[in-house]
Amino acid sequence: MKIDLFITCLNDALFPKTGQATVSLLERLGHEVRFNAAQTCCGQMHLNTGYRADALSLVRKFVNDFRDAEVIVLPSGSCAAMLRELAPDAAHWEGDEALRSEVLELSGRIYELSEFLVKKLGVEDVGAAYPHRVTYHPTCHAMRSLHVGDAPLRLLRNVRGLTLLPLPHADECCGFGGTFSVKNPDVSTAMLADKARHILETGAEACTAGDNSCLMHIGGGLHRLRSGARTVHLAEILASTPGQVWA
Amino acid sequence: MSGLHPARPFPEAAKSEVNNPQLRANLRKVTNTIREKRLRAVGELPHWEELRVLGAATKDASLAHLSDRLLELEASVKARGGHVHWARDAAEARELVAQIAQGHGVTELIKVKSITSDEIELNRALDAHGIHAIETDLAELIVQLSHDTPSHILVPAIHRNRAEIQALFNRELGDPEHLSDDPAVLAGAARRYLRQKFLTTKMAVSGANFAIADTGTVCVVESEGNGRMCVTLPEVLVSIMGIEKVLGTWEDISVFMELLPRSSTAERMNPYTSFWSGVTPGDGPQEFHLILLDNGRTDVLADEVGRQTLRCIRCSACLNVCPVYERAGGHAYGSVYPGPIGAILTPQLLHMDDKNANTLPGASSLCGACFDACPVRINIPQVLIYLRGEANGHKGTTLESVAMGAARYAMSEGWRFEGAVKLARAGQGPLVHGGQITALPGLLGGWTQSRDLAPFPPQSFREWWREREAEGAGGEP
C-alpha cells in the first residue's frame, strides 16, 4: 500500500525518532512510505486555544498537501482526532462549508498508527522485539475520539520479550491538554503527579503511548522526579527488532 | 463567591484550591466512589447508548419549540389554579419571591435544594428583606450553617468530611448532647431540627427538574424526602425553574427517569420523585407560583453550537469523571455551576466578555470523559473549544494571540517551519542544562513548574528524510 505519512509538527521538530521508527516499521511490513515535505501542522494547538482562523488556515494547508493520498498515517492520536473530529466542526463554525466537506472527504483516509495496523491492515504481530517492562497509557483522544480501543495493547502483547504491566487508573487524563498545561499549570501538575505515581507503581522501565505530546508531559514529569522511568512512543517499540533497537 | 459570577479567573482560583491536601483527599474519595458506582449502574442497561440518544433528542425537540412549550405550560398551570411569572433575570426572580413572601407576611421559609435559586442568590436577597430561607437538603443545610457555598451540583458539601460536619452541628444546631461523628447520629440531629421547620413554616421555595407543558405539572427529583415535605406541607409553594426545563408531555419524562438517577447517584430508580399540577383544594399547598427564569438562557439557545448546553439535566456525572474538577474542586469555578458543565454554562449565561467567566472554557484538558458520561450527550469538549474561540474574540491582541499568529505563519510553509525549528535549535543553548531544559521564560514558564523538557534534537525528521532520499537516489532504486 502507498502510505502518506503525516509526521506532525511536534514529532518533526522534537521527536524525529518516532517518525523514523514509523517509516522503518511500515517499510518492514512491505509498504511504500511517502513524506510530502510541504506538510507542517494540523492546527490543533491553535484550535484548542481558540484561534480558529489560524487553525483553519493550517487545516486548509493539510487538505492541499494530502488531497491525493491513498491513506494518511499519523503517529499521533490527538492530531488524527483533530483532523477527523474537530476540523470539520471548526470549518462549519467559520462558515467555510467547502473546507468542511473537503476535510470530511479526506477524514475516511486518516489513521492513527495503531488503528491503521490493527483495524486497516489486520496486523497484530509486527515482528517486534523489545525486552523491557512496559506500561501503556491510553491517550484521551485516541481512546475517546478515535476509539482505537485495545489496538495498541494487541500490538504490544505480540512484542517479543516485552512485559506489559497494567497501569492503574489508566483512562485518566495525564493533564497535558496542550496549552492547558501552561495556562493552568497547577491543576495540570496535580494530574501529572497522580499519573506519574501510577506509572511508578507498576515498576515499569518505560511508559508508552501513541502520542508524543502526552509523553513529553509525562516524560518531563518523570525526569523532574529523577524517577529512572522513561517514556517511549509506541512506534519506537513496534519498530524495534533484535537487530535494531529504536527506543 | 456566590451566584453565577466568578470573582477570579479560574487558574488563579484553582491555584489556592489545588494545594489543599484535605480537599484533594475528600474529593478524590467521593468522586472515585461515585464514578465506579455509576459505571456499574449504567452497565446494567444494554440500551444505555440508545437512551442517551433519546434523551438528547427529547430535550432538543423541546428546545426547538421552547416558546410554544412555555406558553402551553403557562396556560396549563393557570388552568389548574397556579400563578405563572416570567423573570428576565436574577433580580426579577428574587423580587418576585420576596413579594410573594411579604404578601403572606412570611419571615421564614423552607427550601428544597435548588441550584437555580443559588444561581439567582435568592437566600441573600431574602435576608435583605428580613426573610430567612432554611435549606432542608442535608448537604445544603451543612453548606448554609457553615456560611459556605456549594461545591458540587448534587453533593454540595462534597468538600466537607464527617469530622468537619460533627463540629459544625455541635456548634450550630445547639443540641444539648454532644453529637458523635456517626453519620446516623448527625443525620438524626438534622432531622429533628428540620421536622420542626416542616411542620411550622407556611411557605416553601423549590426548583424544578422538569415541567410538563400539556398538563402543567412540575417535577422535583430528590433522595431524602425533604423536598416532598416542602412541596406538600406548607400553604404556599413557589417553584423557580430555568426555562430550559420544560418538556412536552408525560411520555417525554420517562427517559429522564432512567437517565437521571443512574447518572447522578448511580441508583436504578430515584427515591423521591414529586409531581404537582397547580393546586388541589384541601390537599397540599393552596397557593402555587411558578417563576420562569431566563437569566441569559435565550441567548444560549440562540447560539447554534452552545445551545446543546441547555439539554443539561443537572445530573453531575460530568463533575464526577472530570480530572480537573477532582483536583481543583467546585469553588475554583467561582459559580454555582462547577465542573465541565459549569465551564460551558456559566460563561454563556454571563456572556463571553465576562473576564473571569471567560477563563472557564480553559479549565479543561479536553480529555472528553465528560462527554462520555453525559446522559444527554452534550459534547462538552466541542463547546469548550468553540467558547475558547468566542472568548478570544473579546480579548483583543494579547501576547498569546501574537505568539499564535507567529506560529501559524511559521507553519504556513514546510520550508518556513524548518527554518523556525533551526532558529529555535540554535537559540535554545542557554536554556539547556545537563541535556534538559528545566526553566522556560515567559508564557511557557508554567511548563517547567513541574516538568523538564528535552531540547530540540540536532536533526529534524524532514532533515533526516531529505538526507535519506539523497542517499537513496545514489544507491539502490
From TrEMBL, chain A:
A Gene Ontology cellular-component term: cytosol
GO molecular function, one term: oxidoreductase activity
Domain Cysteine-rich, chain residue ranges per copy: 5-84, 134-218
InterPro entries per the UniProt record, alphabetical: Cys_rich_dom
Protein name: Fe-S oxidoreductase
One Pfam family here: CCG
TrEMBL record, chain B:
Official protein name in the record: Iron-sulfur cluster-binding protein
Domain Lactate utilization protein B C-terminal residue range list: 388-469
Signal peptide segment: none
4Fe-4S ferredoxin-type domain span: 310-378
Molecular function terms from GO: 4 iron, 4 sulfur cluster binding; metal ion binding
Keyword entries, A-Z: 4Fe-4S, Iron, Iron-sulfur, Metal-binding
Protein origin, superkingdom: Bacteria
Organism: Deinococcus aquiradiocola
Gene3D superfamilies in alphabetical order: 3.30.70.20, NagB/RpiA/CoA transferase-like
InterPro entries noted in UniProt: 4Fe4S_Fe-S-bd, 4Fe4S_Fe_S_CS, FTHF_cligase-like_sf, LUD_dom, LutB/LldF, LutB_C, NagB/RpiA_transferase-like
